[in-house]
Amino acid sequence: MRLLSALLAGLIFGAGIALSGMINPAKVLDFFDLAGTWDPSLAFVMAGALAVTFVGYRLVLRRAEPLFDIRFHLPTRRDLDPRLIGGSALFGVGWGIAGFCPGGAIPALGLGQPDAVIFVGAMLGGLVLARWLRG
């Protein structure tokens, strides 16, 4: 049941990303083009996601335990270390260059977009390289 609920959540997320147009890298890149063809729709998508997440966490965390696990798995660390800051910066630069993040690239991959294939391949290569460098 855990796997099925994860699959359902991923499908809902992917459908939302596709429906909002965020699988189109040009739409994402237009958000970053403040002096040109600026498109604020990404900000609205993010605000909507934050609102749903805020309400969802408030409702779910009232429960004693999750439906499909024995406990909630919430982050406990609150410090900002160099790896977190560097990874966040690398993510942002990559997103600004490619117009894809993993959340948009996976649904685009499912629709057969060639750019998504290249992005996901590079992303997987980066994950392998990062694990190899960590030793």
Please describe the topology of this protein.
Blueprint: H1 2-20, H2 25-32, H3 41-60, H4 82-98, H5 102-110, H6 114-134
Helix pairs in contact: 1-5, 2-4, 5-6
Plain-language structure description:
There is one protein chain. The chain has helices spanning 2-20, 25-32, 41-60, 82-98, 102-110, 114-134. The chain is mostly helical. It has one domain (2-134). The longest helix has 21 residues, at 114-134.
Number of domain units: 1
Radius of gyration: 17 Å
Give the SSE string.
HHHHHH
Structural class: mainly alpha
The overall average pLDDT, rounded, is 91
Which bin fits the share of residues in helices?
55-70%
Task: Name the beta content range.
Answer: under 5%
Instruction: Tell me the span between the first and last alpha carbons.
Output: 34 Å
Instruction: Report the principal-axis shape.
Output: globular
What oligomeric state do the depicted chains represent?
single chain
Uncertain segments are none
- β-strand number: 0
What's the tally of helices? 6
Brief digest:
The chain is mostly helical.
Record keyword descriptors for this entry:
single chain; mainly alpha; 70% helix; globular; membrane; transmembrane helix; transmembrane
